Amino acid sequence: MTQQPLRLGTRRSKLAMAQSGQVADAVRRVTGRPVELVEITTYGDVSREALAQIGGTGVFVTALRDALLRGEVDFAVHSLKDLPTAQPEELILAAVPEREDPRDVIVARDTLKFTDLPRGARIGTGSPRRMAQLNAYARGHGLDIEAVPIRGNVDTRIRYVHDGELDAVVLAAAGLKRIGRIDEVTDFLSVDTVLPAPGQGALAIECTADNADLVASLGELDDPFTRVAVTAERSLLAALEAGCSAPVGALADLLADGQIVKEMRLRGVVGTTDGTRMVQLSTTGPVPETHDQALALGRELATEMLAQGAAGLMGERAH
Question: How far is CA 76 from its chain centroid?
């Protein structure tokens, strides 16, 4: 008897399909069951408004979650940075696979690096977080740039550069890698220049909490280090009461001595989009061994950032 295929809910974009296809292959390996992709259109895919305008939080996620709750799909794959920080009780984050490169990258004309862009260079990004940090870096290093808000998929954004409308665009390294276009990157932005979005480069595999067998199977794809890192980053975001579209960057990385992981460092930044005011702090401690310890690490850093005026830099607080 052939087993029923597992239905994987995914967004329709080329990147989402590539990510989901990779997860589908991994799930086939661990379960021995066929997996079929079910394409779902989300509000974020059809809306032409700027993400900051439509609230950012959950716009790429809600339709997938609704399909899970209605039993139309068995599990769903999200870019973790798109997930709202509040987890619905009926759903469980069954796996956070090993993270891809979390950095932001530049795709610029004439293979230019960020610091070699001409005066007045127009750089496209839909992210207030990227705008804030690029503008702050430019201000501190005597560069003259203009951050231009854009929307659209990877193809659309890179086309702006090829068509000469923009000098450069900022994208996530992970996305370009997953669709096989990493060779188009002209500059990898150091996390010391631009901290990524909380959870950037990581995927989230979600299913209903009552499907114990599937939860267990998907759990085999979980990477514990990635999970504690993104948990700390998202805890920081939640404690700042900021949505996915807020100008908040965070990265938890593991500090190793040779092969032995010693500590985890969590860095956070929040700033005004023009880059004039920034609060950037970090904390280092033992690698969290539990979910609660990872949450605490994020909350502690958020408390310090709020004490330094972070709340006033985020514009509208998300509620």
Answer: 16
Cα–Cα–Cα angle for 295, 298, 299, rounded to 5 degrees: 85
Please give the structure tokens belonging to residue 272.
């005004």
In sequence order, the β-bridge partners of residue 268 are 250, 281
- Residues 299-313 have pLDDT tens digits of 999 999 998 888 777
Q: Whole-angstrom Cα distance, residue 197 to residue 246?
A: 9
In angstroms, the CA 129 to CA 59 distance is 17
Tokens of 246: 């807020």
pTM: 0.88
Check pLDDT > 70 for residue 30: yes
What strands lie across the sheet with 35-39, from one edge to the other?
Answer: 35-39, 6-10, 75-79, 203-208, 91-95
- CA end-to-end distance (rounded Å), the chain: 50
**82 is known as an active-site residue:** yes
Residue 55 region by backbone torsions, left for phi larger than 0, else alpha for psi between -120 and 50, else beta: left
State the Cα–Cα distance between residues 128 and 82, nearest whole angstrom: 14
- Contact call for residues 167 and 109 (beta carbons, < 8 A): yes
Amino acid at 248: V
The amino acid occupying position 155 is: D
Query: Distances in Å between the alpha carbon of 165 and those of 129, 160, 161, 233?
Result: 22, 5, 6, 34
Q: Which of 82, 104, 167, 187 is catalytic?
A: 82
Whether 45 and 13 have beta carbons less than 8 Å apart is answered as yes
